[in-house]
Amino acid sequence: MNDFLLEVKDLKAGIDGKEILKGINLTVRPGEVHAIMGPNGSGKSTFSGVLAGDPRFTVTGGEAYLNGVNLLELSPEDRSHEGLFLSFQYPVEIPGVSMVNFMRAAINAKRKYLGQEPLTASEFLKLMRAKRAVVDLDNKLASRSVNEGFSGGEKKRNEIFQMAMLEPRLSILDETDSGLDIDALRVVAGGVNKLRTEQNATIVITHYQRLLDYIKPDVVHILYKGRIVHTGGPELALELEERGYDWIKEEADRKD
């Protein structure tokens, strides 16, 4: 039996006829945290968008399986129902839609997909109270429209709250540390760590070691020019912090 939660084989994708991902190979097991690092333009956000089903990107080759299910054959919403969660670098505001209604609709849509009964109002509010505590989300924020008027830190905290509510199998955090001060970073990272189990996994996409001081990766990958060119342990992120990306670029270009 295959023990991979995520299995990506030779994934290729692009936008407007330009190839960005040029053959990604990646496997993630339950319980693991993987970090993906790399210079700007290397394809990190494209990779997360392709896995989540962003329609801007066209897949031109390869495969991607989540718990044995072919992600590339599913709509974005069904990928979510199967247990994929993407935390956006820049979370959008949804004026006029309260967090309560937004999350209840999302939870019950997933339950319907899985053949489960919808949560009652009291069951949902009990769940929401418990999950708010994971990231210290203020009740006033939970009652407002989705992300409307939120600070950068509040938006990221809200994303991790949504992650707690949906209990995904695989969470992809796309530069979650972007724009966060140190206090907000600790709260967000603390929420991610509390949600870690032996059954789920997380992919952290980041430029900086500072996030990995709080969310400890098991494996670090370097993405460059649409390919994973280097894989190692947590020490690889520390080496990047010290040496930058030039040595990775030179090494990868020599192989090309």
Walk me through the structure.
There is one protein chain. With 256 residues, this protein is an alpha/beta fold. The protein has ten helices and twelve strands. The protein has helices at residues 44-52, 76-81, 99-113, 121-132, 139-143, 152-166, 182-195, 209-212, 234-243, 246-255, and strands at residues 6-15, 18-28, 33-37, 58-66, 69-70, 84-87, 94-98, 145-146, 170-174, 201-205, 219-224, 227-232. The strands form three sheets. Strands 6-9-10-3-11-12 form a six-stranded mixed sheet, sandwiched between helices. It has a four-stranded antiparallel sheet with strand order 2-1-4-5, with helices on one face.
SSE topology:
Layout: E1 6-15, E2 18-28, E3 33-37, H1 44-52, E4 58-66, E5 69-70, H2 76-81, E6 84-87, E7 94-98, H3 99-113, H4 121-132, H5 139-143, E8 145-146, H6 152-166, E9 170-174, H7 182-195, E10 201-205, H8 209-212, E11 219-224, E12 227-232, H9 234-243, H10 246-255
Parallel strand pairs: 3-10, 3-11, 6-9, 9-10
Antiparallel strand pairs: 1-2, 1-4, 4-5, 7-8, 11-12
Helix pairs in contact: 6-7
